[in-house]
Amino acid sequence: MASTTPSQTVGPYLQIGLAWLDTDTIAPAGVAGERVRIRGRMLDGDAKPIADGLLEIWQADPAGRFDNPAFRGFGRVPTKSDGTFAFTTIRPGRIGSQAPHLLVGVFARGLLKRAVTRMYFPGDATHDSDPLLSLVEPARRATLVARPAGDGSLEWNIVLQGPHETVFFDL
Amino acid sequence: MADEENYRKPLPGTQPEYLHAPYGSTRKRSPSHALVAAPQLAGELAGPRFTREEVGVGYDDLTKHGNAPALGERIVVAGRILDLDGRPAANTLVEIWQCNSAGRYAHAIDTHDAPLDPNFTGLGRVLTDEEGGYKFTTIRPGAYPWGNHENAWRPAHIHFSVFGPSFMTRLVTQMYFPGDPLLAFDPIFNSTADAEARQRMVSSFNWKLTVPERALGFHFDIVLRGRGATPREG
C-alpha cells in the first residue's frame, strides 16, 4: 500500500529551523493595499498560552489573486512566551464567492499535524455567502472572524481545544 | 472546481490523529470538535514559492556553519520530494533542524545536560532540483531524554519541513534512522497507526550516498498528497 509520509509535531525547538522566515510584516513596503494589524493569542484546552506555536499565513492580494509577483502572500508568525502573536498585512480581496480571508496553518509542540483554519474580517457583508463559513454551525462562526480591538488593530485568538475552540477544517 | 484537481485524502491510519494520549502534549492541544469538511478552492490549490537567492548558499552543509568543523559522525541525507503518484516537487523549499551529536539543541529552552557544540547550529535548508531531489551534509543527531513519561527518550531524528506545490501539500515530519531500538517506544513516531506508513519516516542506509573517507549516506524520500483521482490498479 502506498501512503503519504506521516506528519509529525514541530516540537519545542521549531524556531531553530523555521525562524529565518518569521516576519512581522507580510506585505513589504511598496505593495499596494489597505494595511491591517492583527494580533491575538494562541491558547490550549486549559486556556493557557502556547509559547511554542507558529502561524503560517497564506493569502490573496487585494485583487483576490495568489500569483502577484510583488506580493507572495505568505508569512510565518511565531507566538511569544506569553502566547501572543502579531503581524501586519494587507487586506485581501474577494475570491469569487469567498469573502476576504487569510488561510492559516497552525503548528505547535503537541500538534501532530498542522491545524488549518481561516481568519475573516469583521463587518463584511459577504460572510453569509462564503462557501466555507456557510459550512460552519452559526454558533461557532465567530471563532473565524476577527474583532476590532479598539486601537485600530484586529484581534483574533486561536484556541486549540475546548468550548471556545477555533473551527479547524478538514481538507 | 473540477473534482479531479483536488488532493486526495490520506488513507485511514496513515496520518496521526490530533489526540494521541501517550504523547502528553496532545492532550490539551488537540482539537476536540470534529473538523469541518471543506472544499479545496483557489487558495488551497496554490502555494508560496521561494527563490534560491533567499534560501542562500551553504545551508545544505550543516557541518560547516562554525569556525571549526562540527563534532560528531558526518552523514549525508538525500532523497526526493514526491507526491503519491510519483510526481516530483521541483524547486520546493525543504527546511531541517536537529540536535547535535550529543543530543542537545542549540536552543535556549533545551536544558538537557549534554554538551553544546559551538560549531553546530542544527539548521539547514535547500530548494529541491527539477527532479525533486535534495541533499544535506550534517551530523548524525543523538538521542535525548524528554519529560513525556518515566525514562522517555526520543530516537535520533531530523525535523523536515516541506512545502510542495500548494497549501494542500504542506508537511512537517521527522526522519528517523534504520534499526533504532528507541522507535518501538517513541509515542511521537508511533502516533501514526499504520505500521507501513510509519516506515515512510525511517531513512535507509545507502552506499551510493556514502562519501569515501568522509560521511555515511542515508536515503530519505518524502511522499506528499497526490492530486486527482486515485490511479486505477493494473
From TrEMBL, chain A:
<dbReference type="InterPro" id="IPR000627">
    <property type="entry name" value="Intradiol_dOase_C"/>
</dbReference>
<feature type="domain" description="Intradiol ring-cleavage dioxygenases">
    <location>
        <begin position="32"/>
        <end position="162"/>
    </location>
</feature>
<dbReference type="InterPro" id="IPR050770">
    <property type="entry name" value="Intradiol_RC_Dioxygenase"/>
</dbReference>
<dbReference type="GO" id="GO:0008199">
    <property type="term" value="F:ferric iron binding"/>
</dbReference>
<dbReference type="GO" id="GO:0018578">
    <property type="term" value="F:protocatechuate 3,4-dioxygenase activity"/>
</dbReference>
<protein>
    <submittedName>
        <fullName>Protocatechuate 3,4-dioxygenase alpha chain</fullName>
        <ecNumber>1.13.11.3</ecNumber>
    </submittedName>
</protein>
<comment type="similarity">
    <text>Belongs to the intradiol ring-cleavage dioxygenase family.</text>
</comment>
<dbReference type="InterPro" id="IPR015889">
    <property type="entry name" value="Intradiol_dOase_core"/>
</dbReference>
<keyword id="KW-0560">Oxidoreductase</keyword>
<keyword id="KW-0223">Dioxygenase</keyword>
<dbReference type="InterPro" id="IPR012786">
    <property type="entry name" value="Protocat_dOase_a"/>
</dbReference>
<dbReference type="Pfam" id="PF00775">
    <property type="entry name" value="Dioxygenase_C"/>
</dbReference>
UniProtKB/TrEMBL annotation, chain B:
<dbReference type="InterPro" id="IPR000627">
    <property type="entry name" value="Intradiol_dOase_C"/>
</dbReference>
<dbReference type="GO" id="GO:0018578">
    <property type="term" value="F:protocatechuate 3,4-dioxygenase activity"/>
</dbReference>
<keyword id="KW-0560">Oxidoreductase</keyword>
<dbReference type="GO" id="GO:0008199">
    <property type="term" value="F:ferric iron binding"/>
</dbReference>
<dbReference type="GO" id="GO:0019619">
    <property type="term" value="P:3,4-dihydroxybenzoate catabolic process"/>
</dbReference>
<dbReference type="InterPro" id="IPR050770">
    <property type="entry name" value="Intradiol_RC_Dioxygenase"/>
</dbReference>
<feature type="domain" description="Intradiol ring-cleavage dioxygenases">
    <location>
        <begin position="77"/>
        <end position="105"/>
    </location>
</feature>
<dbReference type="InterPro" id="IPR012785">
    <property type="entry name" value="Protocat_dOase_b"/>
</dbReference>
<dbReference type="Pfam" id="PF00775">
    <property type="entry name" value="Dioxygenase_C"/>
</dbReference>
<dbReference type="InterPro" id="IPR024756">
    <property type="entry name" value="PCDO_beta_N"/>
</dbReference>
<dbReference type="Pfam" id="PF12391">
    <property type="entry name" value="PCDO_beta_N"/>
</dbReference>
<protein>
    <submittedName>
        <fullName>Protocatechuate 3,4-dioxygenase beta chain</fullName>
        <ecNumber>1.13.11.3</ecNumber>
    </submittedName>
</protein>
<comment type="similarity">
    <text>Belongs to the intradiol ring-cleavage dioxygenase family.</text>
</comment>
<keyword id="KW-0223">Dioxygenase</keyword>
<dbReference type="InterPro" id="IPR015889">
    <property type="entry name" value="Intradiol_dOase_core"/>
</dbReference>
<feature type="region of interest" description="Disordered">
    <location>
        <begin position="1"/>
        <end position="32"/>
    </location>
</feature>
